[in-house]
Amino acid sequence: MNRKTLVLPAVIGLLAPVLAACGGADGGSDGGDAIVVGTTDEFTTTSDDPAPLDPASAYDVGTWNILRQTVQTLMIQPRGQGEPVPEAAESCGFTDTGNERYSCTLREGLKFANGDSVTAADVKYSIDRALKIKAPSGVFGLLSTVDTVETKGEREVIFHLKTADATFPYKLSTPVAGIVDPDDYAKNQLRDGFEINGSGPYTFQAEESDDKLVKAVFTKNPNYQGALEVNNSKVELRSFPDADAMSSAIDDGDIDLMTRTMTPEQIQRLSTAADTQVDLVEMSGLEIRYLAFNTEAPAVKSRAVRQAMAQVINRGELVSKVYGTQAEPLYSLVPASLTGHSNAFFNKYGEPSVSKARAVLEKAGITTPVTLTLHYTTDHYGAATEKEFELLKEQLNSSGLFEVTTKGTAWDEFRPAEQKGEYEVYGMGWFPDFPDADNYLAPFLDKDNFLGSPYANSEIRNSLIPESRREADRQSAVGSLTDIQDIVAEDVPVIPLWQGKQYVAARDDVTGTAYALNSSSTLQLWELGRGVSG
């Protein structure tokens, strides 16, 4: 029968000591057939992105979900929302009172999948490489506070930071800090194609067709030494063209588990079905969606235009008509469940108001209607994205202040065009690199930001972000974080829209599903096992 399971957020730090415990409440087994996981994420090599799986370049939830299984990091995020704990490292910590010197000691006996030893020199090489290459994705920005990396012997690595950064342990848990083998990854260039060599819990084999990855096979790495207990011997990740095809595959038993980009209709069906062998697991999520602006584009260069859009958009209607109970309105880049969140956009604009928006435009001398195009990706955030953007268009056009059209583009074209500044307004989603408010602000507002946005605020970059990072107690950073959010609501380089839950659907003989995703939407394939159906 169907069981809808609700997984509550873990108490901060509660799960850190038990990271290596059994994968899932139902137990599991490392034997049996491969566990097959479905996804609608596409992995493609293109002229704009020839190296989608290189840790120094990859920067989206799909590619990171592959890298986290294969490329080991010094630290790792636990099952819940606790602080990161050692993984490839035996121990890590700040060695000064100013949070500017961070030292890690590697576990003994670490090896890459090919049997080569993993040393402190390999860690230094990997970090230096990412910072030197500076891939167009902007992922190297996560390491922006690193000044130099020092090694002592075979096992100790010391990071000297440019400025205090209490979030640095989180950053060492992200794939850009993944440890790569210098024999396989050149110092000055990215590794093209779909090959991966690491020291993580799995080895990786890609099956590709027409420059696309159609199946990824993860096999338990016999040389793995780390904090994780691997509860299966093999997992396959299969790509599907859309959510309907993926849903049919799990109904037919062709795949065992699916997540990400399920449609609201599919989630509703699975949550209410009385007789099915597929269970739905619901858990709190930190995914957000937002509109971003090229603030140099003529149509939206005036702050008044962006403010008027923020004043007109009705988040409540957007959520209720498109996503229902699977999302909630969001009035800041920082999700409501994180320390430092404030309802900055609601405080600034209140309820949607056409008259207030008109007054803003009139005061700035803007002729209406303002003509612009809302761009969205057709295949990266799920089938509901098109409906969402049609409703946004309807809201803006019905005000009489805007004349909006929408245009959908496949992700492999959409993302490079956005980075090149070709879109004036475009829709994006964000799955956090780590669960801290800093990771919802700095990637969009700091130098070398993820969006390639021309928006720059010197107070945010030079004062408020550094101030917030000096506070190891994140509650003490709330003042700086709130000030950043207030400035964003005033200048509107982005408009936050909604915050979503996350779901896993799995055949009922699969165990460990409650831990298949962590709070950052990271797939944790090692948690999955096989139990008894029913």
Polypeptide structure, described:
- Strands 1, 2, 9, 10, 11, 12, 13, 14, 15, 16, 17 and 18 form a twelve-stranded mixed β-sheet that branches. Strands 5-6-8-7 form a four-stranded antiparallel β-sheet, covered by helices on one side.
- About 4% of the residues have low confidence.
- Helix content is 25%, strand content 23%.
- By secondary structure, it is of the alpha+beta class.
- Helix 6 runs antiparallel to helix 9.
- The longest helix has 15 residues.
- Keywords: Signal, Transport.
Roughly how many Å apart are the termini?
7 Å
Strand content: 15-25%
Number of helices: 14
Q: Average pLDDT value?
A: 91
Helix/strand-derived class?
alpha+beta
Question: What is the C-alpha radius of gyration, as a whole number of Å?
Answer: 23 Å
Number of strands: 20
Q: Which spans have pLDDT < 50 for at least 5 consecutive residues?
A: 8-31
Query: What is the general shape?
Result: globular
Major sheet details: 12 strands, mixed
Percentage of residues in helical conformation: 25-40%
Family: Belongs to the bacterial solute-binding protein 5 family.
Domain Solute-binding protein family: 83-449
Keywords: Signal, Transport
InterPro entries: Peptide/Ni-bd, SBP_5, SBP_5_dom
